[in-house]
Amino acid sequence: MRAAKPSERPIDPARRTRRGRPAFRMSSGGKGDAVLKCQSRLEWLFAMAAVIHPRVSEIYYQPLVVNLTTGTVHREKIKMKPDCKYYVPDYLLVVDGKEYIIEVKSAALLAMSNKDFESIREILTRHALRFALLTDLDLRSAENNIRILYEYAIHDDPGAITEWADTLEKLLENSSHISVAQDLVGLIEPINWYVCAGILRGVIKFDVFNWQLLGMNFPVERAFGDQQSLEVMHFV
Q: How far are the Cα atoms of 5, 13, 25, 27, 155 from residue 8, in angstroms, in the given order?
């Protein structure tokens, strides 16, 4: 793993890409690259979704170069030839031990893209790489939940997250009157620490698409270790 320089901030929206767009820097939470770069706000959100995704074990930013002319894949920096066309993907994710190349695009701009994604998919498949094209439609209304859970997922003391989750689990084992998150007020404070930790550790279920963490007015249902509710991204 490449260590982040001490001067680097987890998120630095002040920096910009060569195209003048805001550039974001963020922590991978110990998954792959120590610091992830994002060239758009949408990439930033998907990177956060990958950090909290329980089946994603590694995340790498622009990890390879695909020569579309020759059909070759390079995992190291190369000198690009002017007579060849190239493709540099946004991310490589390792999901259940399998490598997925991830392309993030705005659904509204997808039709205007000049990339032949089917040809890209065919080349990657020949190199045992899976391909997933993700748009803002995949995130739906989950943005605020993703951002909140991400902040807990990159907590500098993972043991604290586990401790809060264990405390919540013991409370739920011994209490039968807790039906919504607000019922936890006065029992564990601040409740957002324990609830978010419980979601990340599979203590309680949470529908990231239809419930909102803000307000804590969603039902509390035990997950018994099932973290499927954190699978914001679905790979095909």
A: 5, 12, 8, 10, 17
- CA pair distance 142, 150, nearest whole angstrom: 12
Which pTM was predicted? 0.87
Residue in the block written with tokens 């001067």? 7
* CA–CA distance, 6 with 144 (Å, rounded to integer): 28
Of 27, 23, 5, the C-alpha closest to 15 is 23
User: Do 149 and 191 contact (CB within 8 A), yes or no?
Assistant: no
86-87 vs 65-67, strand pairing mode = antiparallel
Instruction: Using the structure block, give the residue that is written with the tokens 């909140």.
Output: 148
Closest CA to 147 of 49, 65, 231, 77: 49
Pair 52, 149: CB distance under 8 Å: yes
Tokens of 150: 């991400």
pLDDT tens per residue, range 185-195: 999 999 999 99
CB atoms closer than 10 angstroms to residue 64:
20
Instruction: Kindly state the tokens that stand for 73.
Output: 């894949």
Over residues 56-92, the pLDDT tens digits come to 999 999 999 999 999 999 999 899 999 999 999 999 9
